[in-house]
Amino acid sequence: MTSALPFDDFLAATLRQQPHLHAPLSLDGLTLDWPDIGVLRLTPTTLPVDADRVLLSAGVHGNETAPIEVLAGIITDLLAGRLPLAVDLLVLLGNPDAMRAGERYLDYDMNRLFNGAHRQQSAAREATRAAQLEAQADAFFARSPAAARRLHYDLHTAIRGSVYEKFAIYPFLHERQHNRTQLDWLADCGVNTVLLHSAPANTFSYYTSRQHGADSFTLELGKARPFGENDLSRFAGIDVALRALVSGQAAPRVGDGSLQLFRAKYNLIKASDAFRLHLADDVENFTALPDGFLIAEDGDTRYVAEGGEERILFPNPKVQNGLRAGIVVEPVEL
Ligand SMILES: [Zn+2]
């Protein structure tokens, strides 16, 4: 028997805190499970054992609205039967409270609270939610057979502009090898720049990569704007690629398919109130740092660019003392 849809629009239902469902729902050709606010699992009625297990998340930063709208549109089309579903799909809207407020976060940056770090910030509202998201990801991938690919794309937009508009962060893999097929897929969907991270991080993508062996990426897809003010045409590449992915199709190539890789060389650490960053407030991500340029200083510590190939990523001198105020990156080959 086919049931009626519990909502017209998953994003609207999430924003108005519509009560979720207490049991999965059988729809035409798929099962819908809506166990919590902003948590939706869609599974085809017939799922091959080696079908991809795909986790798509957005809104871990509540004001990064365009990717949330992209995922909501995909869900609408899946449920309307306009888009076939060929994978086991879990969609997580990360921080509904911050999304409603139009804020990056309410108490604490959620993308610093995964990998168990939420236990050190238990008073923050984001800590509770980060633990819930980890549990949802755990349950999803725990059911995934060895034959199936495990994929996680955590979608973001950046606070500042970027020399390279779309880029991915590949979490530190420890002993695992980088997956060339995944890098090529990213290039095909117009994400032509990838940072290979060289240390663990308390991000959602690091968590699923480390805990579940997923091919996980943080995708930075452009600049953050409020709901309804996004030019979704700028997100067409990833939209088309994700639609192809959930339908079991290859990504149609957007752009020239080129790929440039960077590695994180070191972090700028704000140790004290004396920290000074010698870059403009609106400096773009991946701005080149000329050889000998004084990037920042903090008392007796001086951060000086070397070689002329280094670039700055995520500069933010306003972080609390002891935290990362930017990443210096450099080109790398695989
Ligand atoms: Zn973000």
Proportion of strand residues: 25-35%
Fraction of residues in helix: 10-25%
Oligomer: single chain
- Sum up the overall morphology in one term: globular
Give the structural class. Answer: alpha/beta
Poorly predicted runs of 5 or more residues: none
CATH homologous superfamily of the largest domain? Zn peptidases
Provide key terms for this protein.
Aminopeptidase, three-stranded antiparallel β-sheet, 13-stranded mixed β-sheet, 22% helix, OB fold (Dihydrolipoamide Acetyltransferase, E2P), 334 residues, 16 strands
Structure summary:
The protein is α/β, with parallel strands linked by helices and 334 residues long. It contains 7 helices and 16 strands.
Walk me through this protein's architecture:
- Helices cover 22% and strands 26% of the residues.
- The model has no long low-confidence stretch (mean pLDDT 94).
- Strand 1 and strand 2 (30-36) form a beta hairpin.
- The protein is globular.
- The chain has 2 domains: 10-246, Aminopeptidase; 266-331, OB fold (Dihydrolipoamide Acetyltransferase, E2P) (Beta Barrel), CATH 2.40.50.
- Helix 4 runs parallel beside helix 6 (204-212).
- It has 334 residues and is an alpha/beta fold.
- The chain has helices at 10-15, 65-79, 96-101, 125-142, 180-188, 204-212, 236-246, and strands at 25-27, 30-36, 39-44, 53-58, 88-93, 150-158, 167-170, 193-196, 215-223, 260-269, 276-277, 287-288, 294-298, 301-304, 311-313, 324-331.
- Zinc ion is lined by residues 61, 64, 156.
